């Protein structure tokens, strides 16, 4: 029987080591790669094409929700399990809407992560307790009738620039990380600020905190 291939993405080495130890102790998993930076995750997944990506929602460079959205587009055969400290249904719903197949709370045991990987690799969805499918469905129905989420109007590049900007990167640093010119980085920043109706860096950071792009 072939093993389920897994990539681990978390900016804490000790977390990755613990997850690797648990998964590799089982006979049905093969951890084929690790990443500590959000922008590196996409390249690694495209290169390795794992069955499952286990992903921390709070990653530097690019957050887990945006990584999930891009993985769904670029590597749809890779199933994503999100690791998160956020148990509120709105956050879970956004992860699922972006393409996550599993959502595991960080307070869960490492064996639960292994269970989640097995479930999503088999084509099913996995949610940590006390999360429930029905509660999330109800939340989703309410959200659909609500106002437009301005974040959804941002392009992929604008979302990348937003995160690097609130992490304190200069235009030159953003350009280096993303492979674009500083002027292009500035243009993306101006466009996303306009779309979100924000006037300055302080307002942008506050927005990122509210949106869960930066940890509180």
Could you characterize what this model shows?
The protein contains ten helices and six strands, in the order βαβαβαβαβαβααααα. The chain is an alpha/beta fold and 216 residues long. The protein has two domains: 140 residues, Rossmann fold (3-Layer(aba) Sandwich); 62 residues, Orthogonal Bundle (Arc Repressor Mutant, subunit A), CATH 1.10.10. Strands 2-1-3-4-5-6 form a six-stranded parallel sheet, sandwiched between helices. β5, α5 and β6 form a beta-alpha-beta unit. α7 packs across α9 and α7 crosses α10. The radius of gyration is 17 Å and the shape is globular.
Counting DSSP E segments of at least 2 residues, the number of strands comes to 6
- Which regions contain 5 or more consecutive residues with pLDDT less than 50? none
CATH class of the largest domain: Alpha Beta
- Amount of beta strand: 5-15%
Rounded to an integer in angstroms, the radius of gyration calculated over CA atoms is 17 Å
Distance between the amino and carboxyl termini: 44 Å
> Structural class, judged by helices and strands?
alpha/beta
H/I helix tally: 10
- Outline type: globular
């Amino acid at each position: 029987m072939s093993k389920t291939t897994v990539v681990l993405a978390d900016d804490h080495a000790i977390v990755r080591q613990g997850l690797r130890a648990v998964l590799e102790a089982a006979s049905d998993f093969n951890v084929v790669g690790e990443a500590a930076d959000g922008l590196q995750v996409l390249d690694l997944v495209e290169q390795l094409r794992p069955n499952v990506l286990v992903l921390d929602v709070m990653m530097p460079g690019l957050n887990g929700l945006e990584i999930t959205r891009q993985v769904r587009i670029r590597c749809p055969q890779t199933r994503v399990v999100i690791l998160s400290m956020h148990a509120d249904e709105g956050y879970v719903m956004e992860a699922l809407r972006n393409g996550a197949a599993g959502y595991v709370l960080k307070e869960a045991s490492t064996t639960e992560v292994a269970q989640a990987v097995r479930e999503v690799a088999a084509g099913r969805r996995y949610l940590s307790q006390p999360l429930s499918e029905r509660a999330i469905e109800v939340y989703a129905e309410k959200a659909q009738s609500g106002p437009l989420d301005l974040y959804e109007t941002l392009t992929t590049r604008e979302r990348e620039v937003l995160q690097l900007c609130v992490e304190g990167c200069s235009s030159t640093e953003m350009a280096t990380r993303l492979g674009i010119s500083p002027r292009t980085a500035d243009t993306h920043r101006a466009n996303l600020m306009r779309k979100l109706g924000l006037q300055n860096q302080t307002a942008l950071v506050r927005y990122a905190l509210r949106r869960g792009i930066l940890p509180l």
